[in-house]
Amino acid sequence: MMVKQSKWPMIGAEWNPLARGESDRLAGWLQEASPRRAARCFLTIAVGVGLYGATIGIWHGPRMAAYVALKLPLVVFLTLLVNGFVNGLLAQILGSGLGFRQTGGALLMAFAVFALITGSLSPLTWFLSWNVPGPDSPEAGAIHRRLLVIHTVLIAFAGVVSVRKLHGIVTAFSGSRAAARRTLIAWLAGNLFAGAQIGFLLRPIFGTPKVG
């Protein structure tokens, strides 16, 4: 009698290179189109960033938690979509050797790393938001500012780690640190600009202590 093997260990083993930042192996992933890996990256971003977004909004209440959980991943996906063509052009012009598909795959993996980090931090930030005085308390303004600083620091940390992983992937793929550095700087400039505009329009984490 054959026992059906669970897919979960296989999925976990496939994600190990991403979690560990094994640049050579991740660069190898870019050589072949894999809709399954792309779908898992999208799912990882939606779940990881969404969970973290919920912990940002929960201090204001369940409605704001749901609002931020939906809008924060949307900012990531729209940034990828808006900058996809430009990033692909820049990658080729700057000598990285990445095509449009490889560029999209590399950025998708970097955002998946970001989502893994923020998702893993979400229990901590949820506990923090749940145990501080609420938005109706007299010290709500000060608490609100402190929470924003904490979230900014944690998001920046996740961003720095994901950028380092992205640099390793591009370097391993192109074989040139100089080309990888040029490409990464150009991508960051474009993504930061587009992400800032999209974030301002969607306002996923803005609010005041009086928002319930």
Short description:
The chain has seven helices and no strands. By secondary structure, it is mainly α.
What would your notes on this structure say?
This protein has 212 residues and is mostly helical. It has one domain. Helices cover 79% and strands 0% of the residues. It is built from 7 helices and no strands. It has helices spanning 8-20, 23-29, 35-57, 62-93, 100-131, 140-174, 177-202. The termini are far apart.
Rg (C-alpha, Å): 19 Å
What value does the average pLDDT take?
Answer: 84
The shape is: elongated
Order of helices and strands: HHHHHHH
Structural class: mainly alpha
Please report which band the strand proportion falls in: under 5%, 5-15%, 15-25%, 25-35%, 35-45% or over 45%: under 5%
Number of strands: 0
The level of helicity is: over 70%
Main sheet overview: none
By DSSP (H or I, 4+ residues per run), the number of helices equals 7
Question: What is the CA-CA span between the terminal residues?
Answer: 57 Å
Structural domains: how many: 1
Unreliable segments of 5+ consecutive residues:
1-6
What's the layout of helices and strands?
Layout: H1 8-20, H2 23-29, H3 35-57, H4 62-93, H5 100-131, H6 140-174, H7 177-202
Task: Jot down its keywords.
disordered N terminus; mainly alpha; 212 residues; 7 helices
